[in-house]
Amino acid sequence: RTLTKLGVPMDPYPRRVIEPIQFRNPFLWTAVIRGYAVQGKFAEAVSMYGCMRKEGITPVSFTFSALLKACGSVGDLNLGRQFHAQTFRLSGFCIVYVGNTMIDMYVKCDSIDCARKVFDEMPERDVI
């Protein structure tokens, strides 16, 4: 995250950093995915998610938050729906922050009905 804020180019830097680490955890992967997403490198973010899953690492809710934000940024509703489904399948319903990101993704993809449905089904809400 700090490297992203400083404007350090993310590609191929994260791969060089993450490859030598023997015990990779979901938080490390999420940081790399988020870094790509923040820089608008959607394909790279999704690619890193695929690498994470191939290694058998279960994502955390913040992983999906980064991916959903990327989907909203590029208006990819289909992939956003897939990540929405995976959020529920892998981690049950999400925390408020991820729910808000999910709503934001649906709104940016012009799917207001889906955004409203997510909001209505959130077990906990905050002010949007």
Automatic annotation (TrEMBL):
It comes from the Eukaryota. PPR repeats lie at residues 25-59. Keywords: Repeat. The lineage of its organism: Eukaryota, Viridiplantae, Streptophyta, Embryophyta, Tracheophyta. Coiled coil: none annotated. The keyword Ligase does not apply. It holds the Pfam family PPR_2. InterPro entries: PPR_At4g14850-like_plant, PPR_rpt, TPR-like_helical_dom_sf. The keyword Repeat applies. GO terms for molecular function: RNA binding. This is Pentatricopeptide repeat-containing protein. It comes from Noccaea caerulescens (Alpine penny-cress). NCBIfam families: PPR. Gene3D superfamilies: Tetratricopeptide repeat domain. PANTHER family: PENTATRICOPEPTIDE REPEAT-CONTAINING PROTEIN. PROSITE patterns: PPR (PS51375). One of its GO terms (biological process) is RNA modification.
